[in-house]
Amino acid sequence: MRRITIDPITRLEGHGKIEVFLNGDGDVDRAYLQIPELRGFEKFCEGRPAEEMPRITTMICGVCPTAHHMASTKTLDDLFKVEPTSTAKKIRELMYNAFQAEDHILHFFFLGGPDFVVGPTAPAGERNILGVIAKVGLDVGGKVIEMRKRMRNVLRIIGGKPVMPSCGLPGGVSKAITEEERKTIIDAAEYAVEFCKFALGLFDDVVLKNKEYVDLVVGDIYKHRTYYMGLVDENNKVNFYDGDVRVVDPNGKEFAKFKGQNYLDHIREHVEPWTYVKFCYLKNVGWKGFVDGEDSGIYRVAPLARLNASDGMATPLAQEAYEKMYEILGGKPVHSTLAFHWARLIEALYASERMLELARDPELTSPDIVNLPTETPKEGIGVVEAPRGTLFHHYKTDDKGMLTEVNLIVATQNNAASICMSIEKAAKSLIKKGEVSNGILNMIEMAFRAYDPCLACATHSLPGRMPLEVNVYNSEGDLVRRLRRDE
Amino acid sequence: MRGQPVRLSELDPNFKLEVIAREANCDITACFCCGTCTAGCPIHEVYPQHDPRKIVRMVNLGMRERALSGPYIWYCSDCWICEQRCPQEVKFSSVWNVLKDMATKEGYPPPVSINEDMCSGCGICAASCPYSAIELRIQNGKRLAHLVTTLCRGCGVCGAACPSAAISVNFFEDEQLFYQIEAPAA
Amino acid sequence: MAKPKVAFYWCASCGGCEEAVVDLNEDLLKVADAVEIVFWPVALDFKRKDVEALRDGEIAVSFINGAVRLEEQEEMVKLLREKSSLVVAFGSCAHMGGIPGLGNFWTRDTIFQRVYNEVPSVENPEGTVPQERTGIGIGELTLPEFYDTVKTLDQTIPVDYYLPGCPPPPDLIMNAVNAILTGKLPEKGAVLAPEKALCDTCPRAERKPEKLSIKEIKRPYEVKLDPEKCFLEQGVICLGPATRSGCGETCIRANMPCRGCMGPVKGVIDQGAKGLSMIASVLGLEGEDEMTEEDIKKLINGLVDPAGTFYRFSLPASLLTRRRME
Fold first, then answer.
1. C-alpha–C-alpha distance, residues B179 and C8, integer Å
2. Beta strand ranges found along C143-236 (DSSP E)
């Protein structure tokens, strides 16, 4: 029994590592993704005042703090049974879409996209934003930085600072938007729409017109037939900020639709002793292990899943792009993991269009931004779609609003089991007879990178090299070979 | 000026009367120097030079300048042990207040100073000073706390309250306080 | 001339400090040009053994963020200390423990019990919890040890400078980087941020009343927050007076009170204690002579969760460092 350890992986908070075990023929027997990170928010938030949670849970993840901020704020609405003002809802949704657009674009250009633009087996030193720029021009890099800057500025205007915003209150938000600020936001949103159109155009040129990539996208290495979950509005269109949770089965048929408040009727978490992350699954199907198909309760979330679970996009340009994707990929649902990248860009376009709609809304600058709670708090559940998946916050408090119990289902957890499966499948498909190469290592990584795991740091990969070292041990535990991805 | 003989010419026989007049309740002349006060004083444990018996003696002798100019009257932490144990029922806490009052009026600086380089103008000190001895003044466009020395009684509330540690209260700096806490426990 | 070598590392971190570096935008490219990054697990290929292979002190500066809560993190920061001339504690967590520091109100076991056994969504009839070693038949899988107590960076290794904030604001980061590159650093142990408290630069300071007095404590959701008045004047707890400035008052400008992420000002050892004594000093000042015992009790009880409020970011760095468990 040989064993391959890949440690550490990049773009996971803390240190993720992959362990691959080979059988006697040198083929992959099992592969495990271990996540050694835990901080204990579900315990140490006990005793805190509930209204502080939007500013504490942001520290769960500095890449998607706005997602936690928003889920937490909505949980407070439910906790105090207070309806936010109409303006507050618009401000929140506007902020939320600016954040989604920024995050998705960042992932595509700095993290996932380089694999396509430059090539999955291209030299590691080129598989990064610099390689992308070299391929498509200096202009692109400048545009990406500008896009991110403008979106972050919108977040700053509404929430104080883009990392760790602080405007969420039960029943509303803390700060109103001025006419001056609205102009800045409209400018930014217009820029975003144009940029996302450009990004989809780039995807078209670079990926869709390249047969090799298309084969990779639709091929079997990166495919799982799972259930899909996402938030939808009353027309079953994708909505990041609010709506019902909808689940479709691997054939695309609606399996469940429920309010976030009823999440415990549908979702359970499974514990394994070899990792700190818990694995979500559908309670009404059951945990059958790390397998896909109708009989396994494993489901996926995030861009592709949301598109699969919905009936379309609520804005025109995004809807066009949605239709085009399903046409090319052969109908719904799409099971190809790499299509997450495509769906991500479509969502970024939707987020930008939605941002513009809200920015132009006359009600946005109204001073009526908060309804003060009057009810005694007891229990609240809030749900949003984080860039990386459905996010649930659940708080119980005493009469004074001090937290007694906290439960969190954090976006990537919903995908945790699928990520493990994707890595194992990729490893099994690619590593044969004990042959391992740097290109193969990267292709294994592409399996998890498509999910844009939440605990990731959304940074650029400057010289873009992936820190992978593969140690090959024989059954005696002796090191027989060591591979490094150096360049 | 240790070890100097007490010169009659430097004594002010009215000093004690002034003190008594200010605080009708306290008859310091009742003191017979038993030293019970000093024996129980926690500050004396740490700073031997702080000696309640000595202060009262100085007042009774009329050693006005030495009593008011020295640091001794500012050390007191207001724990009231001396007052509670005094067999002659001398009201020490009143005595200290009067002496501090007299000291600042006569221009002896209270042991409090505000460091303007650290002061953020938050105003917590001004709000909490029981003697209204701190004012907020604008200097070079910045709000800064300013000590009105004639009103200060060196009580130290400002030093405790200041969130920037910008106010020094002599003998009650952090390090000294830690020492005072540790000493009785040792 | 060789470019100075720079390393970045993260312990129990959320990634926000990495985002803050990227928020330097174009300036980041300038920095990247001026230095040679030799270690950055989130982005680069370099491994632990590459750091081991360097000479002691060869890395000009290591920026380390995140609190120390795993064995693996402790080992790594000790290695980086050996190989670096300067170590900068980057962000609240490295500086004071940060939000993960709130875990010091509990222990490893209580946290595990809640996360893996008690939450309503977990299905775990066998009571499985993560283990440092798990046999899986074909081999053994390992996880690093999760400590009972969260430590700050300087409780683990000697630290030369601190960049405070959650996360540190981009301009403070740039100033620090420039200071390092030009060798114009203050004395060791300094926090690379302005020295005064937030009130010094707060946009609401001018309109503060002469004498602050809190008549009744209001939680931020109990009143419509006035965007011009000092929070303390409104009765809302704001840690601004006890917190170092330099963040641009971003939360105040979003009309929310300060929660102290920049840490204490120079010379203050325990931010929470200062915060507490500051609030206590102005609680019920006006009309305090007329207050009954009941009134006082009611006033004080309005301050909910004092430990979590005053030590929100600084529990591991405080004098007590953690709650004593029975």
1. 40
2. 146-151, 161-163
Which residues in chain B touch residue C198, judged by CB atoms under 8 angstroms apart?
A: 120
Q: Which residues in B lie closer than 8 A to residue C211 (C-beta atoms)?
A: 123, 126-127
- Cα–Cα distances (Å) from B124 to B127, B157, B161, C91, C114, in that order, read 5, 10, 7, 28, 41
pLDDT at C30: 78
Summarize pLDDT for A198-233 with one digit per residue, the tens.
Answer: 999 989 988 889 888 888 888 888 899 999 999 999
Q: How far apart are the C-alpha atoms of C314 and C263, rounded to whole Å? A: 7
Give A-chain residues touching C115 at CB under 8 angstroms.
Answer: 38, 40, 42-43, 278
**Interval C149-175 mean pLDDT:** 95
Percent of chain A with pLDDT over 70: 88
The β-bridge relationship of strands C84-90 and A403-409 is unpaired
Q: Are A167 and C98 a contacting pair at CB < 8 A? A: no
Q: Write the pLDDT tens digit of every residue in A356-410.
A: 999 999 999 999 999 999 999 999 999 999 999 999 999 999 999 999 999 999 8
Asked if A208 and A218 count as a contact pair (C-beta separation under 8 A), the reply is no
Question: So what's the pLDDT on residue A457?
Answer: 27
Element (H, E) at A51: none
Q: Would you call the peptide bond into C186 cis, given omega within 30 degrees of 0 as the criterion? A: no
Tokens representing residue C41 in the block = 């697990």
- Chains in contact with C, counting 3 or more C-beta pairs less than 8 Å apart as contact: A, B
Lowest mean pLDDT among A461-470, B40-49, B107-116, C56-65: A461-470
Alpha carbon B178 to its chain centroid, in Å, reads 19
- Chain C hits for A61, CB-CB cut-off 8 Å, are 14-16
Higher-scoring residue by pLDDT: A444, A230 = A230
Distance between CA atoms of residues C135 and C244, nearest Å:
49
Tokens standing for residue C10: 């993260």
| Greatest extent of chain B over all pairs of C-alpha atoms, in Å | 56
Chains C and B touch (3+ CB pairs under 8 A): yes
Whether residue C269 lies within 8 A of chain B, CB to CB, comes out as: yes
Asked whether the CA dihedral C186, C192, C197, C203 is positive or negative, the reply is positive
Domains and CATH numbers, chain A: 2-37+429-484 (no CATH), 83-221+336-372 (1.10.645.10)
Strands A244-248, A227-232: pairing kind: antiparallel
A459 has pLDDT over 60: no
What is the Cα–Cα distance from C93 to B101, expressed in whole angstroms?
47
Which residue ranges form the domains of chain C, and what is each CATH number?
A: 5-99+150-182 (3.40.50.700), 110-147 (no CATH), 198-310 (no CATH)
| Alpha carbons A336 and A222: distance in angstroms, whole number | 6
Q: Please give the ipTM for the structure prediction.
A: 0.91
The residue in chain A having the minimum alpha-carbon distance to the alpha carbon of residue C98 is: A59
CB count within 10 Å of CB B184 equals: 9
Domains of chain B are 8-105 (1.10.1060.10), 112-169 (3.30.70.20)
Q: What is the rounded CA–CA span in Å between residue A10 and residue C47?
A: 11
pLDDT tens figures, C68-98: 988 888 999 999 999 999 999 999 999 999 9
Shortest Cα–Cα distance, B5 to chain C (Å):
43
Q: How sure is the predictor about C150, in pLDDT bands with cuts at 50, 70 and 90?
A: very high
How many other β-carbons are positioned within 10 Å of the β-carbon of residue A177? Answer: 23
Strand, helix or coil for residue B3: coil
Task: Measure the CA–CA gap between B65 and B69, rounded to whole angstroms.
Answer: 6
Burial of C162 (0-12, 13-18, 19+ CB in 10 A): buried
